[in-house]
Amino acid sequence: MRALREDEKERLVNAGCRAQSWDTIQVTDDFYPDGYENVTFAGDVFLARQDVRIGFKVKNVRLENCEIGQNVKIEDVAEGIKGYYIERGCTLRHIGRMVYDEKELCGEGTEIAPLDETGSRSLLLHRGLTAQIAYLTVFARHNPSVSTQLSSIAEQYVAEHKLGKQARIASGTVIEFAGTLVNVHIPEASTLSGVKRIERATLCHASIGDNVIMADVVAMPGSVITESCMLHRCFVGEGVRMDGAFSAHDTLIFANSHLSNGEASAALLGPHTVSMHRSTLLIGSSVSFFNAGSGTNQSNHHYRLGPMHYGIMGRGCKTASNAYLLWPAVIGSFTKVVGRVMTQPDTRHFPFSELIAEGNNTKLRPAALLASIGTLRDQDKWYWRDKRVHKESGDLIDYSAVPPSVVSEMYAGYNELRLLLVQRPEIERYNVRGAAIERADLLSGIDRYRGALVLFVANTLTQWCLDRTAALKALHANARQKQDALVYYDLFGISVSEADLTRLYKQLERKKVRNVDQLAEFFRQCDNQNRFLIPLATALLAQLFDGTTEQRLTACLTEALKVSERTEKEVLRDAAKEQSSRVQVAYGLLASDSGAAARELSLLKGNTDELPFIKQMRAQREEERCAMERLLS
């Protein structure tokens, strides 16, 4: 860099430029004055050459304490740009105000209060945050040493990424037709078009659209925020889309979520959270792979000590239209919630269930959705909706239909239902932590959970073992698995065993895990299913069957074949309901013969058995049964 020459100053003045002091301006050796027109310079300014022959120019703007890269387009910034390093190839035009103050944050380092609005589970926003790190930070408060170390790791990350005298606008960024931008740091090329106001934000390869208002936000690669959304103190993960004037505060939103029209308040929204409807409020909610029906609502305030309550809904839950939940509550994975649930149930051991409000009471139907075509469709669709940019370093997601954490839930539920039956064999209605189970549903739940566990063991062995000899060898090698091999936790997308989690706690207590990278690496190792699927299957086999290892294997495979055939029939019957006479009521309206409705439905939707998803499911089940028979022989 060098000082301006006198002839360059003269040409700049002739082009309408002015400066508080020409002596504080530095330029590149190949600087060309014609690239600047009607520009006011203030403070320390560094200027690069702009190739006007191909349309690059800086005009109609005030630059204060800025560094301007080569070949940028900057024009019509009403109140000027202060404190920014604008890299090569950026386009900034028609902006109201763009200011950076090094005394203020740029989103990173902001403390937010998810779940408990009174702040007991607060954490810091930063770019190193992932679904797994956030979940651990929020819920590991039972161990003060672990919690303190996690806070130190976040503080260290924020300190290491603290900005100096200038914020950065990364090469290739486009900002146009924008209002006020205050302390907006863009370390990866992003697009801002039509935004209304952004204050204290870090945007990494994000797209921010019309009329958006944001303050204290970190947005990650592939995120899209548009259509008048309002965000305050939020983290927006990879591949997230927010539109339809969605509003949120103190909320963490992780990969592949889609939020539209509604509101989130102090929520912890894991991967693949979907809320698309107006009048839908997610408040104090911890959810993942979640689908909110229209009008879904929750309460986190009992009007005593403030909005301190929250609820946890396991992986894959969904709510029917106008569903309501009074927090606190814990809902098992893949549960469908219907009605106004006021009893604060704890159904964490009962995945794939229906939770139905009946007046002031709540009915639980354990395992009712294990044979639902809707559950299978949900499990299949998430993989195809993955928009993550950094699949190995950001939010980790296991797309298994039934991950180990859910297997662990089913095993706990299976044992609990059996225990209830043994303890009270004579009654017709069982009360379990805020929910009632009818005897028939309890018996059905025991049968369905056992069937699902047996299928998991059989499918795991057939997937990882080529023949019976290999399966027996693997079972013998893992024969001494302890009871804790059956306990897994869902950490917002991946399953972590109790043993691994205990090991991580010890490493954090001893400060052997010192930074975000080490935390992320730990979770990547946990995401390697090869390590624990066979041990989990071995431990389950020992609990579900008696006899020698070979006898247990034979019994398991024999039962699994029957369960597979039975479950497939149940799923197909459930799918056939979509072409029942009740569904046909809205078809054939302009025809008089009785068969018109069925014909029109068939023409528009096709035969259920011919649907690609159904064909795929049947072929997969047949393949699984062939593999089981191979291990039987």
Task: Write a structural description.
By secondary structure, the chain is α/β, with parallel strands linked by helices. The protein contains 13 helices and 43 strands. It has a 28-stranded mixed sheet that branches. A six-stranded mixed sheet has the order 1-3-5-7-10-14, with no helix packed on it. It has a three-stranded parallel sheet with strand order 31-34-37, with no helix packed on it. A hairpin with a 2-residue loop joins strand 38 and strand 39. It is elongated, with a radius of gyration of 29 Å. The model has no long low-confidence stretch (mean pLDDT 94).
Descriptive tags:
633 residues; alpha/beta; 6-stranded mixed beta sheet; 43 strands; 27% strand
List the helices and strands and how they pair.
Blueprint (H helix, E strand, L loop, with lengths): L1 E2 L2 H9 L3 E2 L5 E3 L8 E7 L2 E3 L9 E8 L2 E2 L4 E5 L3 E2 L1 E3 L4 E9 L11 E2 L10 E2 L6 H9 L4 H17 L6 E3 L4 E15 L2 E3 L3 E8 L2 E2 L4 E7 L4 E2 L4 E7 L4 E3 L3 E7 L4 E3 L2 E3 L2 E2 L4 E2 L5 E3 L1 E3 L3 E2 L4 E3 L11 E3 L4 E2 L4 E3 L2 E3 L4 E3 L1 E2 L12 E5 L2 E5 L7 H12 L19 H20 L5 E4 L2 E4 H26 L3 H10 L10 E3 L4 E3 H12 L6 H11 L6 H12 L4 H28 L19 H10 L6 H21 L1
Parallel strand pairs: 2-4, 3-5, 4-6, 5-7, 6-8, 6-9, 7-10, 8-11, 9-11, 10-14, 11-15, 15-16, 15-17, 16-18, 17-19, 18-20, 19-21, 20-22, 21-23, 22-24, 23-25, 23-26, 24-27, 25-28, 26-29, 27-30, 29-32, 30-33, 31-34, 32-35, 33-36, 34-37, 36-38
Antiparallel strand pairs: 1-3, 12-13, 38-39, 40-41, 42-43
